[in-house]
Each structure stands twice: as structure tokens, then as C-alpha cells.
């Protein structure tokens, strides 16, 4: 078992300071990188996907050096990676470990699926109240339509 | 202190049960004495980005009976919208010229957005298929007036229950008053699940029917709506149902003495004209009640009564 753990460590090497996002569903890796706006980020980023996970079968992991996310930044990924764990590292030591949480409100994260909604016609911020966290149903603050995960298009 | 002062009215649920009742009570006073100069010196803007003659005239009439001046437009082609102006800019500009803005707009959520950018209160006079709260309040007023109460009404909704925004708002509002809901529609136009869920979560009862005559004997109120052809992808389906929900005077024989027939208007053929002569027809008085209810809404929000 210990041997297996060491091999994993080698697959995505440790960082000195920064954030590790673990237990991301393997297929959601690139979505999560996008949601965290990491495409244009200049710090060192290590990531891997289709890694073995005892709990989830396959998983992805991201390690971002010298970056600590605000709660509202990191909780954006909860929609696609509800199982993700946030680990903050300082001097190679874990200083914080927590699960991501689906926020109560999605602000300017997703587009309303209703073509007649005013948000699709004015330059404005979209807002959705999360009405069901388990099933992930959100209600548009403006047109009041309820949207499910499959209807969501990220901004 | 008037709790409605300076509040926008976008959705029926923006006003709680007591606030809704206070509007109905005030409307009752306006019905007794409609011409009062309470809004002398005030300017009411009515911005109709899509035409709705009935609703606009009702607001104009309400404001005029209170002595207010009314400015605005009745369709967007006669406004700067046709030059490409954003809704935000229109609202910010018009709010300089008026004390309250009444707006009808084809886009859903437009009134909520306007209420967020506007320094003056917004009254939603219909935003696409979403909300039409002043219609809902006048429906509540009409029910209370004709039945002597709002509580525990047996109400039948007939026709297009899927897209009819007046139906949705009224069901939501009547959940506060322990109504029993009888839902008559073709299967393709049933009440949305989210609203049925709301009825159930309030521990109230609804029943669904496909035939209008199944509900005639026990309803206190029959709320008729128009089944619109554009809701059907298949014209054959429309042909099948278009004459299925037509109320005729000879169907009223076994109905309750207190039954009133309501309709948000305009009607097409779903209530035959011979019903108009019966004492159970209430749709034109219902429209008149809209003036008193809108008088109550304008004065409450402007904080003058």
C-alpha cells in the first residue's frame, strides 16, 4: 500500500506552497481549470487525470503553486466537481483541508437557458439561487425559470 | 409607516399575505370613491415595450382618477428602444421624469432588472410569460368580492395551464388561502410540475381533469383561459382541443348559485357570448376591478395613503 502511495506522489509532484485540489472527477479536469481561470495563470501548475482513486475509481488532481483561492472562487467548481477537496500547503505541510461547497447563489457563473430571459439581452450579471443542492437545481433571479445541471452553460 | 412605500412590485410573492390583503382593502375604498386627488402633482410613467391596450388603459385610468399625470409610450417602435437603447438606459432616463414606472416588456425578468437599476419604484405590468402581479391582485379582489371570502375557495382553472402566467400567479397567491384547485386542460397544457409541487408542499389538494363538465357542479370560481394555437407544434393537436374547453350558457344549469366565471381577457371563443348575459359572467367587472386595485397599488407604493 505504501509503495502505491509513493508512486502516486510521483505522478504529480508535491508543491512547497499553494493549493491542491484533489478528488476532481476525471472528466471534469479541464472544466475545473477553466472555471478557476487557470488557463492564463503564470504560476506553476501541475495536474493529472485518470489517476486511480480508491473512493471514486478515477480522479483528477490540480496543484497550483503560490496561489490561495477565496471561498467564492473555489466554490465555483462545486457544480462540476462536488467531490473535490481543497488542500492548502505551506512549506510542504498541509495547513487546511476542506470540501468544496455548492454556493447559495451563482453570480455571473452560468448563462440562463431561457432565450427570452432579459439576462440574454442586456449586458448584466446573471444570478441564480440554488434551490436544490442535492439535485443541483437553480432558479434565475430574473425570469424565475428553474434550470438543472444539464441545462447549464458556463460564462 | 406604510410598509409598501417605495417598494417595487415585480412578482406577486414580493408582497406577503398581509400586504396583499391591505391592497384589496384599499381597493375596496377606491371602488366606493374612485375619484380622489391623492396623486396630484405626481407623474406616473407607463412604458409599454410591447402593446397591451387593456392593461395600459387600466393603469392610465387608475392614475388619472387619482389626479396624477401620465407619460410614456405604448409600443417600443415609438421609443428610443428602436434606436438600440438598452433597457437600463431607458429606465434611468425615464426615472428622471417620473415618480413611479409601470412597465410591460416582452423579455422575462425585465421588470426585476429594471427594479434593480431604477431609483424610482417599478410596477411590473407583465414581463413576457413570467409575472403579471397586478392581474393577480385584481383576480384576488374579484374572488373576495364575489364570494365574500378568500379562504377555502373551490377554483377551477380551464385551458392553457402550462403557459398561462395569470394562472401560475393566482395559484401561488391562493396557496395562502387554503384553496382547492381543479385543473382542466389537455395533457399537453397541464400546470407545470413546479407549481403542483408548491400546492402539495402547502398541504393543499389539486385534481386534474380533461373535461370541462367534470368540474361544473362544485366550482365557486371558474377561471377560463385562452388556448393559443402557437403553443402547439402540431396543428392537428390544436384542432382537437380548441373546441374542447368552450363554456356555453346551457352548461350553467347545474352549477352553484355563487359560481362566477372569470377570465383575464382577451377572450376569443372559449366563453360563448350567450354566457355574458347570465349573472355568473364576471369577466368585465373583473377588468373594472383592475382599476381600483391599481389605484391601491399606486397610492401604496407612492406612500400617499
Low-confidence stretches of chain B: none
Strand order of the largest sheet of chain A: 2-3-1-4-5
How much of the sequence lies in strands of chain A comes to 35-45%
CATH homologous superfamily descriptor of the largest domain in chain A? Aspartate carbamoyltransferase regulatory subunit, N-terminal domain
Strand order of the largest sheet of chain B: 7-6-5-8-9
CATH fold title of the largest domain in chain B: Rossmann fold
> How many individual helices of chain A?
3
The 3D shape of chain B can be described as: globular
User: For the terminal residues of chain B, how far apart are their CA atoms?
Assistant: 10 Å
Can you give keywords for this protein?
heterodimer, A: 155 residues, mainly beta, Alpha-Beta Plaits, SH3 type barrels, five-stranded antiparallel β-sheet, four-stranded antiparallel β-sheet, 3 helices, 11 strands, 38% strand, B: 305 residues, alpha/beta, Rossmann fold, five-stranded parallel β-sheet, four-stranded parallel β-sheet, globular
